[in-house]
Amino acid sequence: MEHPFFPTTTTRMEALQWLSIAEKLLLTRDLVGSKSFAKRARDADPTLTPAEQILAITETIIAGECWIVNNHADWYAVLRLTPQQGQEAELVSSQYRNLALILNPQKNRYPLADEAFRLVVDAWAVLSNPSRKALFDKELVFSQQQQQQPATFSNPTQAMHQNFIFFGGGNSSGASHS
Fold first, then answer.
1. In this structure, is residue 174 part of a structural domain?
2. What is the CATH number for 56?
3. The pTM is what?
4. 67 has which bridge partners?
5. All residues at 6 or more sequence positions from 65 whose CB lies less than 8 Å from its CB, including other chains
């Protein structure tokens, strides 16, 4: 189904308009909106290098806002890697280099490029250092285990209702029928 804002046939002028909207949304820190318009601009005209720069900024900052235990960013997500891919040092290094080139604030003039660049540098500082990476991997596993554990009686009203039914003889009004 065609989206009313994004017709299927586009011109370079429309792609540039979408790019302009993406930049304005980036200024207001609407990362999801900016990403959406930048993707549309890139899809409409793949030669628009600025669209790639805006996408790199938005995707990096969005990934950096996903916290794990101990208030750390998910450094693998920042470099657009899975933890399994993060075990390959050359792949981590390659992802870092690519993102650092795109996000370098001296070459990327868009707002928040410096923030995204710092996230990439911080991710590299952790994932390129074997001892820091091992500690981060342990915290990541712990965080994933915490998320997978079911909460027992997360709804106190439900727990009270269950106890009430059990101790009240099974009728929901609590009155006993003799």
1. no
2. 1.10.287.110
3. 0.74
4. 73
5. 73
